[in-house]
Amino acid sequence: MGLSCGRVCWKWGSPLRRLTGFSRLLSTAALAPQICVVGSGPAGFYTAQHLLKHHRLARVDIYEKLPVPFGLVRFGVAPDHPEVKNVINTFTQTAHSDRCAYYGNVTIGKDVMVKELQRAYHAVVLSYGAEDNRILGIPGENLSGVYSARAFVGWYNGLPENRDLKPDLSSETAVVLGQGNVALDVARVLLSPLDILRKTDITEGSLAAIACSKVKRVWLVGRRGPLQVAFTIKELREMINLPGTRPLLDPGDFTGLGDVIKDVPRPRKRLTELMVKSALEKPGEKEASRWASATKEWGLKFRRSPLEVLPAADGKQARGIRMAITRLEGSGESARAVPTGEVEELECGLILSSIGYRSLPLDSSIPFDPNLGVIPNSLGRVQGAPGLYCSGWVKRGPTGVIITTMNDSFDTAQSVLEDLQTGVLNLSNSKEGFESVRSILHSRGVHPVTFSDWEKIDTVEVARGKLTGKPREKIVDPQEMLQLISH
Predict the structure, then answer these.
(1) Mean pLDDT of 419-434
(2) CA angle 26, 49, 441 (to 5 degrees)
(3) pTM of the model
(4) pLDDT for res 383
(5) Cβ proximity of 253 and 202 under 8 Å
(6) Chain centroid to CA 177: how far?
(7) CA 20 to 30 Å from 355, out of 13, 267, 285, 304?
(8) Residue 159 half-sphere exposure, CB side, CA atoms within 13 Å?
(9) Which of 338, 435, 330 has the alpha carbon at shortest distance from 117?
């Protein structure tokens, strides 16, 4: 099956067409390129994988600020989607290459500066993702009961920085602002039967909190209409079929859409058809029975834009949200939501903002566009910084699924390979790679975690999970991780 991205075409199991004859060139190369990748999520590992596969002398070191690898595969993918996490097997194969090394517990921009990496390596690839969230920018956003979906996902997935979140789940109604896959993940975790969650790698603490949750209803709110939702059909189908729940879809939102979608791309058409079917058609006997006995419910609210989180009498806790009712100008993906002047208030004690992730600059020496939240680049080459590259969300923004990141990362790796071939990256200058960084870390009292160290942590997590019938019990405290490996 052929895959393609912007500039490069390849087939699985065959060399890049652009690299014809490249192997002969490499066989005579005097020096092995020393390359480092910052970030051990999908972008980092796919970049490393491609470099190692297509340059038989390259050495790649992967740096990660946490002791444990895999980024959003570990901390972002929903616990009830274990099949998506299978890419970890591929990443583990990459890490086991004798030309690849993993160094966790190292924060670039603090423990080691990018300039120091550039002195130690022929090429530095920044693949550190998007570790912040976009803010709503409305009054009441900081009230108790309002959380970013990013923090909430980090909490139930064991991201150390979110382990103490303690979300207030005492309200019967929750509102998720956003209609993408992360929004559906959050809604599904809030409403899933405990029997389902108990078999996943959701953290022990969050499972206990969800077991005591009073949330019975989740509204997913979007500024635009059904034709502009960002979630995909797989996630919608999971919500529609979620045991113990029923969908609340207003028939008025979907009437007449059948004619509108005739010419839209097939994925959007199938997604809209499923929403229309659920909203307008009489359910089958089995489905009708399930919906009738459901104790929880979820729904989609369209053409609503948040104006203000409303405080309770104590002035500290959220009690609801005020939204502008909008109308659409234009059509399709480019349709804009414009306020009509009408407003609506919705009572709720839990509000989760799922309006997107945002990358941050790593250190002041790196070009960064704060408006777009990306590193300015051309095909992964950082503008005005020879030898510096970027891949993944910090390159293109926080969009797409893992396959999108794979293609994007392969493309950046290809830019590095081309620059090695054309001499843009000068291999005649010997670079020490990690040997140089090791002395810097030692002088600053930083102890890097190796991949074999991670495998010890992994073994403990899997063993703890077995005791309760889970695939693993994630360790959420970095200090406990380091104690396990005697750091």
Answers:
(1) 94
(2) 95
(3) 0.91
(4) 96
(5) no
(6) 17
(7) 267
(8) 23
(9) 435
Cα–Cα distance, 60 to 78 (Å, whole number): 29
How many residues are present in the chain? 487
DSSP letter for each residue of 20-83: TTHHHHHHT-SS--EEEEE--SHHHHHHHHHHHHH-TT-EEEEE-SSSS--HHHHHTS-TT-GG
Per-residue pLDDT reduced to its tens digit, 137-168 = 999 999 999 999 999 999 999 999 999 999 99
The token duo for 47 is: 């970049």
How, if at all, do strands 173-177 and 296-301 pair? unpaired
pLDDT at 64 over 70: yes
The β-bridge relationship of strands 296-301 and 304-311 is unpaired
Nearest-5° Cα angle at 409, 408 to 413:
120
| DSSP code string of 224-247 | S-GGG----HHHHHHHHT-TTEEE
Percent of the chain with pLDDT over 70: 94
- Alpha-carbon distances, residue 33 vs 17, 97, 280, 450 (angstroms): 21, 15, 60, 21
User: Is pLDDT larger for residue 16 or for residue 390?
Assistant: 390
Residues 6+ apart with CB under 8 A from 94: 45, 48, 49, 52, 100
**Using CA atoms, how far apart are residues 40 and 70, in angstroms rounded to an integer?**
5
Bridge pairing between strands 318-329 and 336-347 = antiparallel
The CA R_g of the chain, rounded to the nearest whole Å, is 24
Cβ-Cβ contacts under 8 Å for 396 (sequence gap 6 or more)? 374, 408
pLDDT in tens, 443-471: 999 999 999 999 999 999 999 999 999 99
Contact between 294 and 248 under an 8 Å Cβ cutoff? The reply is: no
CB half-sphere exposure, 68, CA atoms < 13 A = 26
Return d(Cα 376, Cα 398) in angstroms, integer: 14
Strand segments, DSSP code E, in 181-317 are: 217-221, 245-248, 296-301, 304-311
CA distance 267 to 232: 8
Q: Quick check: helix, strand or coil at residue 336?
A: strand
DSSP 177: E
CA distance 130 to 400: 13
